[in-house]
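Can't paste images in this forum, so I'm doing it all in text. The chain is below; anyone willing to post the predicted structure tokens underneath?
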Amino acid sequence: MIPIDLAIIWAFIIAFAVFVYVVMDGFDLGLGILFPLFPEKRDRDVIMNSVAPVWDGNETWLVLGGGGLMAAFPLAYSVLMPALYTPMIAMLLGLVFRGVAFEFRWRTTKERNKWDIAFAGGSLLATLAQGIALGAILQGIHVSGRHYAGGWWDWLTPFSILTGVALVIGYALLGATWLVMKTEGELRDRAYHLSWMLLLAMLGAIGAVSIATPFLHVQYTQRWFSWPNILLTAPVPVAVAAVTVMLLRSLANKYDYQPFFLTLALFALSYAGLGISMYPYIVPQSITIWQAAAPENSQIFMLFGVAVLIPLILGYTAWAYWVFRGKVRPESGYH
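Text version of the structure:
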């Protein structure tokens, strides 16, 4: 009988929750980042309507990922949070500003421009903070014993800024391809144009992060380029190239649905690359998945709850997206 590794199972659950959050909240954060490029009220209303039925459920996965990390890997949580207090607080403030602006801009005419600025600024701040936090984790956390041993500003480095900018570009591309899928006419055409530029920028960002990452730690270099590891890692960049070709073709042929889902595939491949680099560490180069894991009884108890919650959340989320499928029109909403 093959033994069940609960720590690995929980690592996959948390990784899944974080990825679903990136997928589902990424495009509406991207819409906020793109908001200043659409100054017309009519266009902004359509953009907001395209995500209004689904946007406020996306943070469910962020809560699940953060809560799961605290419950299943308490040591990792206690080390990572002090190291990332500043970007995490910035992210939460950005999400708050974005959420409040989303609701309040509909209820005022005189102050609408101010709420639009808050929506765009909150989206940019939240995205930049998420990317910086990712870069700070990848570059390594200073740990002494079982405690964070670094300084207040250790998270702020050229590499973390690079990953922050890369995520801003990626989310903006998700937002642009979402508009291609959900809108019509001139707004859709402008989204196509933006998608071309953002795709080229995202490929540059992926290349820059991929080149910089192996220089952070020798373990990253060995994981990607040593033999026989390269046999397992080589398919990732090959798949990125293949998806990029399909994405370029879908934009050239002006398909409505393929660009968005192919962009999600790029995110999935980038996420897989991140997992390859980090495994088996949950705090890179310091704490492994097994060292950070909660007691086995606790993991089993929580697993029963997650086994019910995740299918339930996936079910009602899929239903919401299905009900509000189709294009959004200014005069008639969804059809």
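The longest helix spans residues 6-34. The chain has one domain: 7-322.
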